[in-house]
Amino acid sequence: MTIFHNSTFPTFLLTGAPGLEWAHVWISIPFGCLYITALSGNFLILFVVLTEPSLHEPMYYFLFMLSTTDIGLCISTLLTVLGIFWVNAREISFNACLSQMFFIHLFTFMESSVLLAMAFDRFVAICNPLRYATILTHTRIAQIGLAVITRGTVVLTPLVLLLKCLSFCHSHVLHHSYCFHPDVMKLSCSDTKINSAFGLTAIISTAGVDSVFILLSYILIIRSVLNIASPEERKKAFSACISHITAVAIFYIPLISLSFVHRFGKHVPRYVPTLIANVYLLVPPVMNPIIYSVKTKQIQKAMLKLVCSKWTSYLTVLLP
Hints:
The chain has 320 residues and is mainly alpha-helical. It contains ten helices and two strands; from the N terminus they run E-H-H-E-H-H-H-H-H-H-H-H.
């Protein structure tokens, strides 16, 4: 068996759907539809927020950031996932694998940070509405966006560099159709205790800490809403949070499940982590535009206005 030392990095083999290789072409159809839905929906959100002046508010700036991270997450996995299902292109070089892994985890951590920022936005809007405009200024929102990118990059850079210090002499077959840190780490024949500890620390210090603060924000929000005398105002306050709560749930539940399966589920069937991984990467980008389009009247109005203006322009050209 060949041992790949630090100076010679292996070529990994990605995995599509274990045991269902004969159906890869058929499986690619729903996957392709999900990617098209996710990319078109999030690009539409970006376009609407940019072009509609009534949406130039903190809440929608954070929604813009969320859609940007969802697009980045989709693009990071698009080529390898569809490449496997369409033409069985399973090989990926070590450096390409590390690059893909970096961006997948970067956009994941960024999405977690943006969801925390959105929770803070709802907290200020409901608990301290009179100071909303002075707290969430354009400058502060830009600073939050920069902090989101910086934190993800700082946490992930050493995580990736530590993988370069490992030797690989086991099977080079990964269990997903993209490169995932615990998956790559398991293929090493070196001592990976430091890598494992650092990876767990990275998850806890980003998504773990973010989830705690999101929960704390909603505890304070609920306490504030319950102090509102008017039932109508209570309902209005709670409805303003439904979209964000749903987005948090569809992001954190698959993420936590995938992390636990990789670290503690040594005896689970092979298809379980693969299924959870696909849900973890595709469901949030697909669902977030739908959730915010359905639940947010301002987004609905802006999209309807956009469609009407496009149809008007089209009919003007056809019927001068």
